Amino acid sequence: MVKTNTNALGILFPNIYDELVPELTSERLMASIPFASRYRMIDFVLSSMVNCGIDNITVLVRENYFSLLDHLGSGREWDLSRKNGGLNIFPPYAQKNTGVYGGKIGMIESILGFLKSQKEKYVILSDANLAMNFDFKALLKSHIDSGADMTVVYKKEEVPKSVMNQDDPRKIMYYTLDVENEEVKKIHINPQDGGVQNYSMNIYVFERENLIKLINEAFVAGGIYLERDIILPQLNAGTLKIHGYEYTEYVSRILSLKNYFDENMRLLDNENLEALFDKEPIYTKIRDDNPTRYMNGASAKNVMVADGCVIEGEIENCILFRGVKIGKGAKVKNSIIMQDSVIEAGVNAEYIITDKKVHITEGKEMKGTESFPIFIAKRQVV
After folding, report:
1. CA-based max dimension of the chain
2. What does the alpha-carbon distance between residue 277 and residue 342 come to, in Å, rounded to a whole number?
3. How far is Cα 201 from Cα 32, in angstroms, rounded to an integer?
4. Are residues 284 and 269 in contact, defined by beta-carbon separation less than 8 angstroms?
5. Alpha carbons 73 and 299: distance in angstroms, whole number
6. What is the pLDDT of residue 102?
């Protein structure tokens, strides 16, 4: 796993967009949402950074972070258990003069002392709601070659309606860009335009010393949001040259429960599965389980199944996480069944999402629809 050191450090924001998936983030944060049968959302950006030689990564957590701490541990699975650099996790109240973080400006300001002591020239900022296999080396090279003050990553796609039609658009902000010759000319906050947009992925590159200066100035002025209170005013004033980096490869953004269901189901298509996993390895926490067992009479069709499962019934078009048990005669279709859930004999389930350790008792019939899958909360007995 050891890669040539890259002259950049990473900062991840694992709580951003929690409010868009309240069903899955009541006891965890966005970064630790299970995805693709054995991973957590943070595994993708974390692995991508490590694969590109970034070995100094900071995670700024805000709340509900116990599951993330349990998952990341010392960072050993990502080769980030190191004396220098490695994985650094900063919760709120890490210093006596800081409280619960507001926006990204306050979060970064709380670790300015740490940032000032680092040696890397560049800082890469990223949210953790993205499942992708990202080449951060190519991003960094593009930024350096452009001579810009910062770089923002975007993808040409439509903004999901679940993001546009929020009850309170101030809670979650999204951004689209006007780009000419790879230079960002304008940033739009929460636009309502339909069609394909230059939709920001909220991945940014700064020079470390310049980021420290910008954060200091914005924090003193009462700034909260990195994009609204630093990037947009500086761009409008002509004091910040912004390079636009278009990402053209596979990415899944988790922005709603329905979107979470759809993005998992996309991976049942081999083309999408290969696009996400065949480029560089994605690392995750190891759990020593037996291989999945398919008992006599079991049937599996177009499924993604992690280790440790026991299948006695029928599964079709399903994502099964570790340790799931499907009882004899049970029929489960078009569903996501998370870790250590039990579906007893004779159950007929379709279009459901179970959180971890759900128990569906014998003979139950549960059916959602493709447009509205049923969600069953963690540890519930049905």
Report:
1. 69
2. 28
3. 19
4. no
5. 37
6. 65
Residue 93's pLDDT band, with cuts at 50, 70 and 90, is low
Close Cβ partners of 265 (under 8 Å, ≥ 6 residues apart) = 317, 319, 334
**Cross-strand partners of 186:** 178
Q: Which of 144, 152, 177, 139 shows the shortest CA–CA distance to 244?
A: 152
Question: What is the mean pLDDT of the segment spanning 13-34?
Answer: 93
| Cβ burial, residue 105 (10 Å; 0-12/13-18/19+) | buried
Q: Which residues pair with 40 in a beta bridge?
A: 34
- Count, residues in the chain: 382
Quote the mean pLDDT of the chain.
93
Residue matched to tokens 């990473």: 10
* Residue 350 main-chain phi, psi, to 5 deg: -150, 135
Beta bridge partners of 151: 205, 243
C-alpha 110/C-alpha 365 separation (Å) is: 50
pTM of the model: 0.94
CA distance 238 to 1: 42
Q: How many CA atoms lie within 13 A of 241 on its CB side?
A: 10
Shortest CA distance to 40 belongs to which of 126, 124, 125, 129? 129
197 CB-side CA count, 13 A: 22
Work out whether strand 130-132 and strand 150-158 pair parallel, antiparallel, or are unpaired.
Answer: unpaired
327 CB-contact burial (10 Å; exposed 0-12 / middle 13-18 / buried 19+): buried
Q: Which residue has the higher pLDDT, 56 or 161?
A: 56
Give CA angle at 14 (8, 15), nearest 5°. 140
